[in-house]
Amino acid sequence: MYTLDLKTMRQIMQKHKQTGHLHTDLPSGVPGLRGPCHVDIMLEAGAVVSCTIKSLRGVLLTGDKAYQELARLGRLHWTFVPSVSPVGRPGFASQTMGRHTTPRPRRAMVVEQWQMQSWQRLHTLVYGLVDGARSAAEIADVLMVPSETIEGILRDLQAMKVIIME
Fold it and tell me: Are 26 and 60 in contact (CB under 8 A)?
């Protein structure tokens, strides 16, 4: 976990040519945003591929508008989940591995970082990657963990009612 402003975080990711998923949770009360939000930034070789701010009601901001909003917020608590496959091409990892890509878990609610403190690290990482676009197999590929382990974690998260399997 990193506590940095977005500009510094981006510079670090660029310098080390990181590919993966950068995310953070924003609490209620952030000016201009309604309620708690989750931020997803996808990186490929240090370059930002996508930037999204989501609330419980759905996507609030994407692209440059989301990035500009985050840049003005100052220091945030970032979590980076590295990926071995390009993140800019959804389904790439599972297609090359010949895996079935359904169902695709999505978040049922925003869970703040303080609420995840009691979770096992792998549960937190999996929750961070659940976005409605990735399958269990793709999440397993990103984390380089057996699919069976990820499926068990997804069942745990579903039992906690923080994700929905679709």
Answer: no
Q: Which residues contact 65 (CB under 8 A, 6 or more apart)?
A: none
Q: Where are the alpha helices (DSSP H) in 41-165?
A: 63-71, 92-97, 121-129, 136-143, 147-159
Q: What angle do CA 36, 54, 111 make, to 5 degrees?
A: 45
Give the angle 14-126-28 at the CA atoms, nearest 5°: 80
Strands (E) located in the chain: 2-4, 20-26, 37-44, 47-55, 58-62, 76-82, 105-107, 163-165
Measured between alpha carbons, how far is 117 from 114 in angstroms, rounded to an integer?
Answer: 5
Question: Is domain 90-166 annotated with CATH 1.10.10?
Answer: yes
- Compute the CA torsion angle 58, 61, 62, 67 (nearest 10 deg): -140
Per-domain boundaries in the chain: 1-86, 90-166
- In this predicted model, what pLDDT tens digit does every residue of 103-146 receive, in sequence order? 889 988 888 888 888 888 889 989 988 988 888 888 888 888 88
Q: What tokens appear for 51 in the block?
A: 């930037």
Q: Are 13 and 43 in contact (CB under 8 A)?
A: yes
pTM for the structure as a whole: 0.53
